Amino acid sequence: MSAPQPVGLAAAGAAFGHRNFRLFWAGGVISNTGRWFQTVALPIVIYQLTESAGWVGVAGFAQIAPLAAMGPVAGALADRHHRRTMLLVTQSLQALTALGLMVLWFSGVRSVAAYLAMSLLVGVVGGLNLPAWQAFVSELVPRELLFSAITLNSAQFNASRLFGPALAGVIIAAFGPGWAFTVNLVSYGAVLLALSLIQVPRTVVPATERLRPIREFVAAADYARQRPGIRTAIATVSLIGFFGLSLQMLSVVMAEEVFLRGERGFGLLLSCVGLGAVCASPVVASMAGRVRRSRLQGAALMLYGTGIIGLSLAPVFWVALPAMFVMGAAHLTSASTLNTSIQVQVDEAVRAKVLSLYLSMLTLANPLGQLLIGGLIELTAPRLAFFVCGLSLLGIATVLVTTGALEGLDEQDSPYQPGSAAEVQPSTPLRPRQPDR
């Protein structure tokens, strides 16, 4: 019998009691902070070279599409090979892409094609990394610390968002994008060092047949379809990707067109999302074992919709910041409950493949949301579009809660290997049309 799961405030930081998790968390927060420098710098470079919002959108698509496209291969590989070794390889490759961008800029290359090619490579390597990253975290903590690990892991990503975009804006404004790429390159040293120090047993399920990524991906989709809790989690994360992540990134329109605050204003908005998530993490983690996941998820969706509506109605920029804070708290709560629900219900033999399916739905919903909601903004107005989307999400959440559609998240019926899932880096936002001034 497993040890009792800690509850209340004792659960909030319980996963930090394990050395492997501490190392992984510290390496992740440093590396993710550095990655934000690159995420902010790339669209600025593309826009400087082209002065075209369309090309910025192409660059964003080039980064995000491979995350979904590589899912079948990445998931199958992560279920076959030692995940720590795989992560050492993929993280090293990501460091090389940062090196490539740095060399391009400092050597004076100003070809948009070169940076688009690097954007595509960033997406391909990131797609190979994500399922292995998620599945590897499942090896770092025991079962009773699951919710703590998941919440802290989400808080780690959001802590990097708290500082990364704002610092990136300052560095790029003062020294140029080349130094932002340099910061990202250096930051990979932290996660590579952490991975080299982590000691875990190999938990690879022996493969009985040769690699068939598409067939295995389809089988994982069928596996998820037959399990109501996993099916519900994947459908719900699609909602979060379409409305939540896309509107976080499209808040660049509010910063530039509505509040006239430019890139630094956009960085502040994203930092408030991170602040909301970091502040919410101990509260959410303390609810482990006391509040059903379906109730937490329903509250998170409603809170998300409320935050979006608040942003749309904010009369001035400083009122918009608390609305983004609310969205960050909602996102942390949602990510924690959905990741926990999948991890306690999935079998180890298909863990990475199901996680790659989960990530694929999130990464597909995000750019689709940016595309469609961005079009709605163009056809109407930023405030109206954000209000309609917030009201829609609030309405969907109300239906899901009142019909009991989220109750599958409470199931816990599979052989369990403990773990947590990291969040996906949001895609590069489309730059909005310039307002008449």
Plain-language structure description:
The protein is an all-alpha fold. Helices cover 75% and strands 0% of the residues. It has helices at residues 19-50, 53-69, 71-78, 83-106, 112-137, 146-175, 177-197, 213-225, 228-258, 262-285, 293-313, 317-345, 351-379, 382-403. It is globular and about 50 Å long. Residues 414-422 and 425-437 have low confidence and may be disordered.
Please tag this protein with its features.
437 residues, mainly alpha, disordered C terminus, Growth Hormone, Chain: A
Chain-wise SSE layout:
Elements: H1 19-50, H2 53-69, H3 71-78, H4 83-106, H5 112-137, H6 146-175, H7 177-197, H8 213-225, H9 228-258, H10 262-285, H11 293-313, H12 317-345, H13 351-379, H14 382-403
Short description:
The chain has 437 residues and is mostly helical. It has helices spanning 19-50, 53-69, 71-78, 83-106, 112-137, 146-175, 177-197, 213-225, 228-258, 262-285, 293-313, 317-345, 351-379, 382-403.
Number of strands: 0
- What CATH calls the topology is Growth Hormone, Chain: A
CATH H-level superfamily title: MFS general substrate transporter like domains
End-to-end Cα distance: 67 Å
String of helices and strands: HHHHHHHHHHHHHH
Helix content: over 70%
Largest sheet: none
Low-confidence stretches: 414-422, 425-437
| Mean pLDDT score | 83
Count every helix, treating DSSP H or I runs of 4 or more residues as helices: 14
CATH architectural label: Up-down Bundle
CATH class division? Mainly Alpha
SSE class: mainly alpha
- Estimate the strand proportion: under 5%
